[in-house]
């Protein structure tokens, strides 16, 4: 069977204020924005990171967001990371803490209202034979 070599190049977002939104996400990821005209490219901050591209909004925002980012942090650091992101300008939307034993998450919105989640997964405990 042929191996497919596909990877995520960048997450593209339309923004009312591309530079300001890129600055927020630069704070989230630790990357350095690279402006180019009306758009801003945010390269991955490290080899395991992801790139983002911000371009001017070309029409009305959809009423319902069909896609969002799920960001993962080490177990026990979600609340600290959420507090950091709130200080950067994110807005708290809701928490899901007890509904699923394999994950807890907080849903936030960036300064332009795009939803994203910060999730943590408990460590897997090996069972005795």
UniProtKB/TrEMBL annotation:
InterPro entries: Glyas_Bleomycin-R_OHBP_Dase, Glyoxalase_6. Residues 11-118 form the Glyoxalase-like domain. It holds the Pfam family Glyoxalase_6. Transmembrane segments: none annotated. It comes from the Bacteria. This is Glyoxalase-like domain-containing protein.
């Amino acid at each position: 069977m042929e191996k497919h070599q596909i990877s995520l190049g960048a997450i593209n977002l339309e923004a009312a204020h591309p530079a300001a939104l890129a600055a927020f996400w630069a704070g989230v990821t630790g990357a350095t924005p690279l402006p180019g005209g009306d758009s801003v490219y945010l390269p991955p901050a490290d080899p395991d990171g992801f790139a983002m591209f911000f371009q001017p909004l070309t029409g009305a925002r959809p009423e319902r967001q069909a896609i969002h980012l799920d960001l993962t942090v080490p177990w026990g650091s979600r609340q600290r990371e959420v507090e950091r992101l709130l200080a950067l300008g994110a807005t708290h939307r809701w928490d899901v803490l007890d509904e699923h034993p394999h994950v807890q998450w907080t849903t936030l919105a960036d300064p332009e209202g795009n939803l994203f989640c910060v999730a943590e997964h408990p460590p897997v405990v090996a069972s005795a034979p």
